[in-house]
Amino acid sequence: LCSWIGSSRAILGPKYTDIGSSCSEAMQLLAEHEQFAKVCLNNETVIRRTQNVGDRLISSGHYATGAIKSQM
């Protein structure tokens, strides 16, 4: 998640510091920000689930434990 946010920062940063010049523009920016927040939360959920699966594989002695650890 952190790397995704970092790579998106250059694109999204300037857009998410704008407050708009009218009420309708501000409302549109707010809607875009809320959508971005939802995407972040969804990505966090996927990352946590993936990490949990990796942890379970490692703790069960999976044959690819070394490769799994290097990806986490």
TrEMBL record:
Organism, by scientific name, is Rotaria magnacalcarata
- What's this protein's name? Uncharacterized protein
Q: Which domain of life is it from?
A: Eukaryota
Gene3D superfamilies associated with the record = 1.20.58.60
